[in-house]
Amino acid sequence: MSSTWLITGASRGIGLELVKRLLASPDVEVVFAACRSPQSAISLHALHNSTSTSGTLHVVRMDVTDEASIICAKDEVAEILQGKGLDYLINNAGVAPQDDSTTTLDSKDLMSTILANVAGPALVTRAFIPLIEQGDRKVIANVSSAMASIGTDWGKEHTTYSISKCGLNMLTYKLAKERPDLIPFLVDPGWVKTDMGGSNARLEAHESVTGIIQVVKNVTAKDAGRFIDYTGQTVPW
Ligand code: NDP
């Protein structure tokens, strides 16, 4: 079955790798790669000329912290889809401020991180729900982090980032309760070598993304509201 996908934060890191892998997947028809500065997303545009792609790439401008840009992106995507619907939305865009703790955190960082990591996916999801309703799969994958897991016990570090991803987790849980017709869930990509994860990270981007795609393609209604890692294992709340 051919499918349609939208990935936010597609300019680099996990988002870019997701777009690359999906375009090479024979069952993927269209990938919307959303990023806030398409003109500087050189690696993304290079995929247009790649011979190993089977799906069609559309690069769409979207800053997840700017509702007007989200609505413009939604209108552009709707125009291209022409009633076909969006099968998979991956809310991948995210930011991580400098490591901090409850006593050292910076109020501006706290606000901007919650804006990008919680309000962003909330507004993107709300805007795209009409297109997702028209899709066959109705999957919304929100990229969270094991650092949001109290059960995993990460200690006092990365407080602002952890708080923001906990907010994303609750958002996803609430959506699953409100909309049993959709499949919203959380995926932890593992510790990945990207600008955010750093060069000491355990996983190459392609290792994480291979797992993420497998998980996202295979979720069913019973996975709505779950917190799953890139290998398919449940992450404790
Ligand atoms: P990177 O820092 O490498 O990439 C972040 C991406 O998000 C970039 O494409 C960036 O775009 C985009 N982005 C940031 N803010 C906005 C915005 N306001 N609007 C649109 N796009 C935005 O991070 P990763 O690829 O490593 O992370 C991807 C996701 O995975 C994030 O949600 C992150 O929290 C999560 N994650 C990552 C882990 C890791 O080890 N790497 C571990 C656990 C979770 P631009 O180029 O314009 O800045």
Automatic annotation (TrEMBL):
One of its GO terms (cellular component) is cytoplasm. It comes from the Eukaryota. Belongs to the short-chain dehydrogenases/reductases (SDR) family. Gene3D superfamilies: NAD(P)-binding Rossmann-like Domain. Keywords: NADP, Oxidoreductase. The keyword Cell membrane does not apply. It holds the Pfam family adh_short. GO terms for molecular function: oxidoreductase activity. This is NAD(P)-binding protein. The lineage of its organism: Eukaryota, Fungi, Dikarya, Basidiomycota, Agaricomycotina.
